[in-house]
Amino acid sequence: MMAADAAAAGPRRGRLGREARASLSAFLLGASVAALPVALGSSPAVLAAPGLRGRLALALHVAGVNAALLLLYPRPLYKIAVRACFLGFAFGCGLLLSTGRSAWRHFGWYMCSLSLFHYSEYLVTAINNPRSLSLDSFLLNHSFEYNLAALSSWVEFTLEKLLFPELKQITWLSTVGLLMVIFGDCLRKAAMLTAGSNFNHIVQNEKSDTHTLVTRGVYGWFRHPSYVGWFYWSIGTQVLLCNPICMVGYALVSWRFFRERIEEEEITLIHFFGEEYLEYKRKVPSGLPFIKGVKVEL
């Protein structure tokens, strides 16, 4: 369900290629939906309020943005741009919900967090490792299990909001969740940037001549910082939504997944780097609670 946490790095590429530039422009274009209330001279609530005005404004915005993308980009770049634009649109809508006094305010925080996470996965990959870049780098079609987990959290939030509305108004708890989300995403992106061009969303089983063991930066704190970041990010989204059922479910499923993934990955890393990795493993913790990694028989 999660991406590979590389602990080796090759040469870096820092410039923005055309895919990265197209995605960034499209993301910002989609996020411009947040400016619609200003253009209409109304409050953000007008877009969610009953009536034709807000819905018509949203429909015209979506149609206009899509037309602009079709005119600006050839088909290969359009496929990138339309996904980035969708994430930007979700981010902008999240901002509108977040700034209002609606009962959906905390869900707006969640929308911003989720859309920014997926877009930044693509952008950082485009900067770090353009050779591995693909539409899958957005992680929008990551797996059936991942999509089911997201859908479950939306269903739980909606049902509990209808049945126990006060449960979704615990601002201090949602703030704690938002801080977890920010910490987790920042840690993951720091791991991707530190690992450089070797970071790949697909676990690598063959060692390249350019691979070197990375122990600096966040890899000096944890052996698997991108897994640590994603673990706390995923749980943080459910704390943010005040979803008690999914909070427990996400924690258990993620912990089990990472325990198995880390053990599998460390076998490969020991094969790649031998005693060098074993020494690193002895000094630096995995970063995840009660997960020590593969056991090595001496």
Structure explained in plain terms:
This protein has about 300 residues and is mainly alpha-helical. Helix content is about 65%, strand content about 0%. It is globular.
Offer a quick outline of the entry.
Strands 1-2 form a two-stranded antiparallel sheet.
For the structure shown, list the relevant keywords:
single chain; mainly alpha; globular; 298 residues
How far the N terminus sits from the C terminus, by CA atoms, comes to 32 Å
Proportion in helices:
55-70%
Biggest beta sheet attributes: 2 strands, antiparallel
Question: Overall pLDDT, averaged?
Answer: 88
What is the ordering of alpha helices and beta strands? EHHHHHHHEHHH
Q: Indicate the overall shape.
A: globular
* Low-confidence parts: 9-14
DSSP E strands, number: 2
Rg, Cα atoms, Å: 21 Å
What is the fold's blueprint, element by element?
Layout (H helix, E strand, L loop, with lengths): L7 E2 L8 H14 L4 H5 L11 H21 L2 H25 L5 H24 L15 H20 L7 H25 L16 E2 L11 H16 L3 H30 L1 H9 L15
Antiparallel strand pairs: 1-2
